[in-house]
Specification:
Blueprint: H1 2-20, H2 23-65, H3 70-84, H4 88-96, H5 99-114, E1 121-122, E2 126-127, H6 133-148, H7 152-169, H8 174-201
Antiparallel strand pairs: 1-2
Length: 211
């Protein structure tokens, strides 16, 4: 299955590159198409996050009130989850759904780097086979912006993953940095659109400073 997915994504990238004849632009367009394809999953995750924000004060109150009674915690939390139509396993499932595609993308990028017949320059100036510290710095800045855009209670985990991502990206050629930067920018835009939708249709959440 992974082999079929890998070959499908690789073939699609080569097909796109016939139009742009620039692998950097092709990767940006490919990332945009992929983000649009995965947007329904991202939106489901966003809606579940709003539910969690709304019920988090109740959850914290339960943990505080029944800190020594695990059975009572489970009983009351199940009541809260049922009332709010929230399933903690569902949001975990949603968040893991895109992972096979993410792994395939990194396999495909590695395959592109190994292709000796492919011009791997972005805008004819940036060698995507080499490390590019300007791209790395840009990725780090936007990654930090993304973390500060998270609810307060999620930032600690965000900083942990930020360290892992920064370490990861400094070890790889610029092609990976370009993909990750495009993905970050599109994710930021996507979340902004989701929030506009939330405001327009009055989808409830709690204020950030109460989370």
């Amino acid at each position: 299955m992974f082999e079929i997915l890998n070959q499908g994504l690789l073939g699609f990238i080569f097909w796109l590159n016939n139009f742009f004849n620039d692998i950097g632009i092709t990767i940006i367009v490919f990332t945009c198409i992929l983000k649009i394809a995965l947007a329904p999953i991202d939106f489901l995750a966003f809606l579940e996050e709003l539910k969690l924000q709304r019920i988090r004060p109740k959850i914290q109150e339960v943990f505080k009130k029944y800190r020594n009674d695990f059975q009572k915690q489970v009983e009351i939390l199940n009541e809260i989850y049922k009332k709010e139509n929230y399933n903690p396993f569902f949001i975990t499932f949603i968040q893991f759904l895109p992972l096979p595609i993410l792994f395939s993308v990194f396999f495909v990028l590695n395959s592109l780097l190994a292709n000796k017949n492919l011009d791997l320059f972005f805008l004819k100036t940036i060698d995507l086979t080499q490390k590019n510290y300007y791209l790395i710095l840009t990725v780090i800045l936007f990654q930090l912006l993304t973390i500060f855009n998270l609810p307060r209670d999620q930032r600690k985990a965000g900083f942990f993953f930020f360290g892992l991502i920064a370490l990861f990206l400094t070890q790889f050629p610029a092609l990976f940095n370009l993909y990750w930067l495009a993905n970050l920018l599109l994710t930021f835009l996507e979340r902004s659109i989701f929030r506009l939708y939330q405001v327009k249709f009055g989808i409830q959440s709690i204020p950030e400073n109460n989370s």
